[in-house]
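thought: fold this chain, then report.
action: predict
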Amino acid sequence: MVGILTICDGDTANVKAGQVETRAGCQARLERQILAHAQPVMACIPQLAAPGIDYQRWAAISLAYNVGTSAVCKSSMARHFRAGRWRQGCNAILMWNRAGGRVVRGLTLRRERERAICLRGL
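observation:
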């Protein structure tokens, strides 16, 4: 899409052109990436540690896995979450649907799914 090699669920770590991964390998990669992204997201949005907001926590970590923790921590979603404006934060996820400066259908669909999950329980 923008010249970045990916594998499995969008993992870009240590990927070589033409590389193939098993289902178990993809699962292991996903678990490593989620754990790696969860800690910095939780540190920059401590409100995500509150009970009862599991879906919002999941959405923030999922977004960080895709766009990076630094981008998430500086985002309007994070600002809304820090202020307790959960619904507005979930809606802000939709803004992250571009790659290479263009709207990408796959990213739009992913963000819509993330937003729908994020809004659960609100």
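thought: worth noting. The two ends are 34 Å apart (CA to CA).
final: tokens above.
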